[in-house]
Amino acid sequence: MMLQDTPITTTALKVSPSSEAEMIQAVKDAQEAFGILKEKTKEEIAEFLDTIAYEILALGDDLIAVAMEESNLPSARLTAERGRTMNQLKMFASVVREGSWVDAVIDLPDPNRSPLPKPDLRKMSRPIGPVVVFGASNFPLAFSTAGGDTASALASGNPVIVKAHEGHLKTDQLVSKAIERAIEKCDFPKGTFTSLVGKDFSLAQSLIMQDEVKAVAFTGSYFGGKAIYDMVQKRTEPIPVFAEMGSTNPVLLLPKELEINAQSWAEKLAQSINLGAGQFCTNPGLILAVQTPVVEQFLESLEAEFKKNIPNTMLNEKISKHYTKGREALLSNEEVELITDSDQSATELQGQPSLAKVDGKSFVNNKALKEEVFGPLSLIVLCENEEELKEVINSLEGQLTATIIGTEEDIKINTDAIILLESRVGRLIFNGVPTGVEVGYAMQHGGPFPSTTDSRFTSVGMDALKRFVRPVCYQDSPEAFLPKALQLSNPLNIWQKVDGKLKKN
């Protein structure tokens, strides 16, 4: 695979709002492209995804420099994020090449069955049509223009229209140019990918209401995701909205583990809470524990470690102001006590790392204390006993993650509480920190509402492409009309479930 010969430079970037006419044309182009994409071979789609990854790499230092300028994120973080973006594309390419993701199922006929003959039934997943992707503020590469939503939608044979995030429009333009070059090199239709810029929410609103759009992917705030979800329900044909909308990611501290490794966990949690200025959807914003002398000693260690945290610059002024407002609102509750801030004062655009605490009863009775504060803050909920701890867990809304810090004995003793946590989350983490989401086959990055709008799906990992397909059953179809994935001769050499048993040539 050859890299781009002439990298795009920042001087070529021209960011201007997209018009209504441009939006309508993008939707029309996407619909036309869909008819071609859904018939592309798995090798053609895989090669296209690989080419996008190489074209992103070919952007070189320009991409990192522009993203740094727009997001206030450091070079090392963005370089790693670029690697993740490319790896996602390559991993989806490998899934497409293998081909079994289509879930081919064949029930062979039995014309002699009594009292009625058994028909020939064959089912597989098929792409659904144009997908609208909203870029995320906190991941200008991995969750935006060519991020996991776009990669998974393209991998499953759907065209993508990106609504670029206003926080990194030049970064979007650079990555969009890379995708467009991949479209040209692979001879894919023009409407395979389009990026649109909206100066306000009106363009996005009009876009998601277009009849040709068949799904929406969003990563951001609860208010933004819920607004999109509610709008889509008013369409003549409602469509799925896969919105990730935030989470407080509770951490359950259990006593025997703290007796052994209190200092180590204090260091890890203090670092995790302030990682990236707390601007991760998996930031540990809630810590749960039964109040004991061991927990009190641990909190002293956590306070000491937390003071060492250095305030970091947040993504932009809007997010910085929102964090400051949310922090002040939380601390204004008379039941909440500020334990400590960082020893260093935050300057303009920086998030002040903060640690607060509240008793279990107050937490249960105050809905406002359960809301996410997007930034480097964590609220410790101290319960009188195990029963109050269960009440606290029962009061939680849906979360992306929950973390259990405990020994095997701790876990056995607190099984009931952990089972309650499981019902609230998409991912249970044992003896780790929630910040950091592995891109793999078994990852689940999605939880019960309001963390996401549909807890059955993930926005990270290889199963993310299942959001953008629908099952189609072919009954007594002529062999010539059947997709290759459903032909009994199995020309694609994929896994098929034939009469309930997995088989492969």
Write structural notes for this entry.
- This protein has 15 helices and 19 strands.
- The strands form four sheets. It has a seven-stranded mixed beta sheet, sandwiched between helices. A five-stranded mixed beta sheet has the order 17-2-1-18-19, with no helix packed on it. Strands 5-4-3-6-7 form a five-stranded parallel beta sheet, sandwiched between helices.
- Strand 18 and strand 19 form a beta hairpin.
- Helix 4 runs parallel beside helix 5 (148-155).
- It is of the alpha/beta class and 505 residues long.
- Residues 1-9 have low confidence and may be disordered.
| Count of DSSP-assigned helices | 15
Strand order of the largest sheet: 11-13-14-9-8-15-16
Whole-number radius of gyration?
25 Å
Q: Spans with pLDDT under 50 lasting ≥5 residues?
A: 1-9
Shape: globular
Structural class: alpha/beta
Question: Into which percentage range does the β-strand content fall?
Answer: 15-25%
Summarize the structure.
This protein is of the alpha/beta class.
Keyphrases for this structure?
disordered N terminus; globular; five-stranded mixed sheet; alpha/beta; 18% strand
